[in-house]
């Protein structure tokens, strides 16, 4: 167990975070509960700014909202000088509701709907990251119809294999994302965007994957992107931005050995400077889109321990009151986590227990073979490093209500997402009743 940010173990043996006793938090807000260490969130963002400040580059740190999107998080990242990467109308809606300046938002997505494109244009977002030829025409058509000129970046699949789980690797050629570089699609897209009257291609984008522990992949991608960029400049595109995506790895367990943020940024800056200088190109503004590396280590999840099943010689199971609904990452990627009994954090973790959830699914595991002190019903279990892609991927499987989210700072708490009730889970259900002839029910595809 490695305590990050403001986490510590108090004299009574409880886990503390943000100056708050996690046992008291669990009692007050219930469990499962996501708890974010606000000071640490801010510190992680500042690490990106501090690192970029020494490079002399023009840059943008666009927080990838997909990692954890909520009003309070959008407010916080704005206060810390971030831009924002959104991938859906829902994320854009949340950001705008939080008062995020639209011109500092850019929108991703490999299948943006026309409704999302129109919403983005009408809201005045800074740029679309166009993913494919279909979308190129859709954005042009919408911009034409709405009488606007829209800034776009083209997402390129650079053909770089990131060393990470296949499901979260995105820069390889065989990917649903982006214009393929190797087969000339990126060049064709640049040629096409030049012909479109309502689009201004201000940059190129590549994101090679997530949870990456080395810099080689970024450097290789930047070298390839510089080549594409040069072609774009020769075609006369007003390119000024190279967005190299996110993907900076974090520590979940001892097996993970992430680089300091500074080291990723220095490698990226160095690669951009040398690749662009070598080609006689002006150095572009560099954008990054970190999600996990900002939100992940600053969040923990608190659960209440429930039942146990000990199978002698096979395995010890202990179940908690959440599971794959609030953290599907073991089920999806075989992800690993560390945990501690938060009410007895000073006790030796000398037993091995597999922490299961409460869903009707054998794969509903949070941690396989966790090292814990002997768990008892009513204990509070804290799982570390759950700030990214946990609440963000929450589900209603088994009609389990969504957990609450609280921010903590200097002994104070802010409930930023309320816990759902059983009634909330069922609130959009309607009894089975067919429409009478001529009756028009108030339903449809509208989501705005
Ligand atoms: C385009 C894009 N940008 C940024 C991110 C954020 O990645 P991470 O959370 O690993 O920093 C992702 C997710 O992998 C992504 O697909
Ligand atoms: N959801 C993934 C990351 C996806 C990144 C988005 N492209 C995870 O939990 O690791």
From TrEMBL:
Catalytic residues as annotated in Swiss-Prot or TrEMBL: 360
Annotated pyridoxal 5'-phosphate binding sites: 247, 289-292, 389
Reaction(s) this enzyme catalyzes, per UniProt: meso-2,6-diaminopimelate + H(+) = L-lysine + CO2
Domain of life, source organism: Bacteria
Residue numbers bearing the N6-(pyridoxal phosphate)lysine modification: 66
GO BP of this protein: lysine biosynthetic process via diaminopimelate
CC cofactor: pyridoxal 5'-phosphate
Keyword Amino-acid biosynthesis carried by entry: yes
Domain Orn/DAP/Arg decarboxylase 2 C-terminal as annotated: residue spans: 35-387
EC number of this enzyme: 4.1.1.20
Pathway as given in its UniProt record: Amino-acid biosynthesis; L-lysine biosynthesis via DAP pathway; L-lysine from DL-2,6-diaminopimelate: step 1/1
MF GO annotations: diaminopimelate decarboxylase activity; pyridoxal phosphate binding
Binding site for substrate: 292, 329, 333, 361, 389
Pfam families referenced in this protein's UniProt entry, alphabetically: Orn_Arg_deC_N, Orn_DAP_Arg_deC
UniProt domain Orn/DAP/Arg decarboxylase 2 N-terminal: residue ranges: 41-295
Keywords annotated in UniProt: Amino-acid biosynthesis, Decarboxylase, Lyase, Lysine biosynthesis, Pyridoxal phosphate
Sequence similarity: Belongs to the Orn/Lys/Arg decarboxylase class-II family. LysA subfamily.
Subunit organization: Homodimer.
PANTHER family on file: DIAMINOPIMELATE DECARBOXYLASE, GROUP IV DECARBOXYLASE
Role: Specifically catalyzes the decarboxylation of meso-diaminopimelate (meso-DAP) to L-lysine.
Protein name: Diaminopimelate decarboxylase
């Amino acid at each position: 167990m490695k305590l990050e940010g403001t986490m510590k173990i108090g004299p009574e043996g409880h886990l503390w975070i943000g100056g708050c006793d996690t046992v008291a938090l669990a009692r007050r807000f219930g469990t499962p509960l996501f708890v974010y260490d606000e000071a640490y969130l801010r510190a992680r963002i500042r690490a990106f700014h501090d690192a970029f400040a020494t490079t002399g580059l023009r840059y943008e740190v666009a927080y990838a909202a997909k990692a954890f999107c909520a009003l309070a998080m959008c407010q916080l990242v704005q206060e810390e000088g971030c831009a924002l990467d959104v991938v859906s109308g829902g994320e854009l809606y949340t950001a705008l509701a939080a008062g995020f300046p639209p011109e500092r938002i850019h929108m991703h997505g490999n299948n943006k709907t026309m409704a999302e494109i129109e919403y983005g244009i009408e809201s005045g977002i800074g740029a679309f990251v166009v993913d494919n030829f279909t979308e190129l025409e859709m954005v042009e058509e919408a911009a034409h119809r709405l009488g606007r000129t829209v800034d776009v970046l083209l997402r390129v699949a650079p053909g770089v294999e990131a060393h990470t789980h296949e499901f979260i690797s995105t820069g390889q050629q065989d990917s649903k994302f982006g214009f393929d570089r190797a087969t000339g699609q990126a060049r064709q897209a640049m040629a096409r965007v030049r012909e479109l009257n309502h689009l201004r291609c201000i940059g190129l984008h590549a994101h090679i994957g997530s949870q990456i522990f080395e810099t080689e992949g970024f450097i290789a991608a930047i070298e390839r992107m510089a080549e594409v960029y040069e072609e774009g400049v020769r075609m006369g595109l007003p390119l000024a931005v190279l967005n190299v995506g996110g993907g900076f790895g974090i520590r979940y367990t001892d097996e993970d050995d992430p680089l300091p943020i500074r080291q990723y940024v220095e490698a990226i800056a160095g690669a951009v400077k040398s690749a662009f200088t070598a080609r006689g190109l002006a150095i572009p503004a560099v954008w990054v889109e970190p999600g996990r590396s900002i939100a992940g280590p600053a969040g923990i999840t608190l659960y209440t321990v429930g039942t146990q099943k000990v199978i002698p010689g096979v395995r010890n199971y202990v179940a908690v009151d959440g599971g794959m609904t609030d953290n599907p990452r073991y089920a999806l990627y075989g992800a690993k986590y560390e945990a501690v009994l938060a009410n007895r954090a000073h006790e030796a973790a000398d037993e091995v227990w597999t922490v299961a959830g409460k869903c009707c699914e054998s794969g509903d595991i949070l941690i396989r073979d966790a090292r814990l002190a002997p768990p008892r019903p009513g204990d509070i279990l804290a799982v570390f490093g759950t700030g990214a892609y946990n609440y963000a991927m929450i589900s209603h499987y088994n009609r389990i209500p969504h957990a609450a989210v609280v921010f903590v700072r200097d002994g104070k708490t802010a409930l930023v997402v309320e816990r759902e009730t059983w009634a909330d889970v069922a609130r959009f259900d309607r009894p089975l009743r067919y429409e009478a002839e001529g009756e028009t029910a108030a339903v449809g595809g509208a989501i705005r």
